[in-house]
Amino acid sequence: MYPPHAGISGGSDVQGPTAFLEISITAGTNTPQEKAAFIAAAFEELQRQLGAGQPLEPASYVIVREVPATDWGYGGQTQAARRQARAPQLQAKWSNEV
Q1: Cα distance between residue 71 and residue 65, in whole Å
Q2: Cβ neighbours of residue 14 under 8 Å, at least 6 residues apart?
Q3: Does 55 or 88 have the greater pLDDT score?
């Protein structure tokens, strides 16, 4: 959170508290509606925790950055490699459920 009067946004002084939250997700794993719902919920939570009884400035940001599966690592593997390694297991599971 940035203190009041910390900067200028849209040509006017920022008078209240602001926030900046950025998350990264694997590209293509969430719909636009899911991302919009997350942004709204995250902003509400930032408001609750950081607003100190006053509204956050509109110049408060929640950013959802999509990272290609080839560029996102988990446990030493890219998400693309993890997905590819799971494909045979998922295929077998789906075959047994049909």
Answers
A1: 12
A2: 2, 4, 5, 6, 7, 8, 57, 59
A3: 55
